[in-house]
Automatic annotation (TrEMBL):
The lineage of its organism: Eukaryota, Metazoa, Chordata, Craniata, Vertebrata. PANTHER family: MONOCARBOXYLATE TRANSPORTER, MONOCARBOXYLATE TRANSPORTER 7. This is Monocarboxylate transporter 7. It comes from Cyprinus carpio carpio. Forms functional complexes with BSG/CD147 or EMB/GP70 ancillary proteins. The keyword Hydrolase does not apply. GO terms for molecular function: monocarboxylic acid transmembrane transporter activity. Keywords: Cell membrane, Membrane, Phosphoprotein, Transmembrane, Transmembrane helix, Transport. The keyword Transport applies. It comes from the Eukaryota. Residues 26-478 form the Major facilitator superfamily (MFS) profile domain. The chain crosses the membrane at residues 25-44, 64-83, 95-113, 119-147, 159-183, 189-210, 296-316, 331-349, 361-378, 384-402, 422-442, 454-475. Pfam families: MFS_1. It is found in: Basolateral cell membrane.
Length: 515
């Protein structure tokens, strides 16, 4: 048994590289992420085929049944910080495997519920009849860790690989919608849920494949590198000028070490004391300090408002098309058109970002701005083909945005790859409030105005606000957004004082060596 465990640990243990591999085991992780997308978001977006069955069996309205998905999405996104904490504490593999178990168990248990009220109540209390808490929490524990570790395995190809792997969601809609519909007609929706939950157990296997990555640069130290150099590391010159504390040995200690080194015939290397800030950041399970960064706050505000624009077309485009005189059979093809365009959008944005000629944050800003215009066009066009064009554009841009907005956290314009595992949970948690409020807000506007276009107006407004905040991300990161005049005037003085101290240190060092 012990030998088997040792072999398993060797096969699924950490992968050590001298640099970011841009491939290697990362391709296996990409396949795992594709399957996680298939059995999480793919299943979630295909849940609409069960709405009429739930309404018929439970005697409930469309709005009350729709709240199941809204609450499930809210639980999934609101508990994102918990996913970050558990991943940083226990690692990606056990967290994703446990999340896959919760998803499978929750979906199977849903088949045995007897009322909508039980589904609402068991969001927070597990009664054994319906575990939508398991489903929502399980989605959170699987998606975020998988996309985070995938970003760590790739650097140059990160954008294109993430975009390709994220197409699992779109392919699942094509495959699952007709397949589950046919299966439901044969064995009923309850047994179909059992089959879906069993298939979702594949996520547990995917979690086991998420081997952590360790980067150990190859070094070949020489004696000249081990001895004292006459230049200070740049990091150590960031100490307090007034106190003279630069983080290295004082001049008296250095002179004493040099004299003792001459007597012993060997000079000991300089001992650099690591910064306390770096040590404390490594030990944090949840990095809330990102909330102090203007770039992250602006990016989170973009995610909050832009999420409002992600729900209306899928929910109301069929009804909007029918209200304009299109037959319902033809109107149903609107969703298929969106899904096809979304696949091409996810793939194309990966190649564009991998091209590297334009800053990635600006590419995302362009996509969000165009999305706002497309949502406005939904309220202007009339007829079947006008809506088809809008659906193609919307699906394409949705694929662009959906596959990049979370991996964009790894870029230096936002938080960077080192802090992404700690910040992604906070970002998705902020998004959760828009995910919960978006569908009911659109429903209220439609009920008040008796016009399905009203939901598209609210989405366009939210997407427009998101574009404004996204435009502030880069200026906030570079300091041009809220820099103070006093700081600009004091920086040259600090740099001059640091330069004088460096020159004085080097001059005294040379004199000590000559003596």
């Amino acid at each position: 048994m012990a030998q088997w465990i040792f072999r398993l640990k060797g096969c699924l243990g950490a992968k050590v590289y001298s640099e970011v591999p841009d491939g290697g085991w990362g391709w296996i992780v990409a396949v795992a992420f594709f399957l996680v997308e298939v059995f999480t978001y793919g299943v979630l977006k295909s849940f609409g085929i069960f709405l009429k069955d739930l309404m018929s069996d439970f005697g409930e309205s469309n709005s009350r049944v729709s709240w199941i998905i809204s609450i499930c999405v809210f639980v999934m996104t609101f508990t994102a910080p918990l996913s970050s904490v558990l991943s940083n504490r226990f690692g990606f593999q056990p967290v994703v495997m446990f999340g896959g178990f919760l998803i499978s168990l929750g979906t199977i248990s849903t088949a045995f519920t007897s009322s909508i009220n039980q589904m609402y109540l068991t969001i927070g209390i597990v009664t054994g009849r319906c575990l939508f808490l398991s489903v929502g929490l399980g989605y959170c524990l699987t998606f975020l860790p998988t996309v985070t570790i995938l970003s760590q395995y790739f650097s140059r190809r990160r954008s294109v690989v993430t975009a390709m792997a994220s197409t699992g969601e779109s392919f699942a809609i094509f495959a699952f919608a007709p397949a589950f519909t046919a299966l439901k007609n044969c064995i009923g929706w309850r047994y179909t849920m059992v089959v879906i939950g069993t298939l979702q157990g594949i996520i547990i296997i995917c979690g086991a494949l998420l081997r952590p990555i360790v980067i150990k640069p190859k070094t070949s130290p020489t004696r000249t590198e081990q001895k004292i150099t006459c230049s200070l590391p740049e990091e150590q010159m960031q100490g307090s000028v007034s106190s003279g504390d630069s983080g290295v040995q004082s001049l008296d200690e250095l002179e004493r070490d040099l004299k003792s080194g001459k007597e012993q015939g060997e000079v000991e290397p300089l001992k650099i004391i690591p910064k306390k800030q770096d040590i404390s950041s490594r030990n944090k399970l949840l990095d809330l300090t990102v909330l102090k960064e203007g770039s992250f706050l602006c990016y989170s505000a973009f995610g909050l408002f832009a999420t409002l624009g992600f729900f209306a077309p899928q929910l109301y485009v069929v009804e909007l098309s029918a209200s304009l005189g299109t037959e319902r059979d033809k109107a149903a093809y609107m969703l298929s058109t969106m899904a096809i365009a979304e696949i091409f959008g996810r793939l194309s944005i990966g190649w564009v970002l991998n091209w590297g000629r334009i800053r990635k944050i600006f590419v995302l800003l362009g996509c969000v701005s165009l999305m706002c215009l497309v949502l406005v066009f939904f309220t202007i066009v009339n007829g079947f083909w006008g809506l088809v064009v809008c659906c193609v554009l919307y699906g394409f841009l949705l694929g662009n945005i959906a596959s990049t907005h979370i991996p964009m956290l790894a870029e230096d314009d936002v938080v960077g790859i080192q802090r992404m595992p700690l910040a992604v949970g906070v970002y998705v948690c902020i998004q959760s409030f828009a995910g919960l409020a978006g569908p009911p807000l659109g429903g209220v506007l439609v009920d008040v105005t008796q016009n399905y276009r009203a939901a598209f107006y609210s989405c366009a407004a939210g997407m427009g606000l998101g574009a404004v905040f996204l435009g502030f991300v880069h200026p906030a990161k570079t300091g041009h957004l809220c820099s103070r005049r006093d700081n600009r005037q004091n920086n040259p003085i600090v740099e001059q004082v640091s330069k004088d101290k460096t020159e004085e240190f080097l001059e005294m060092d040379k004199q000590v060596i000559k003596s």
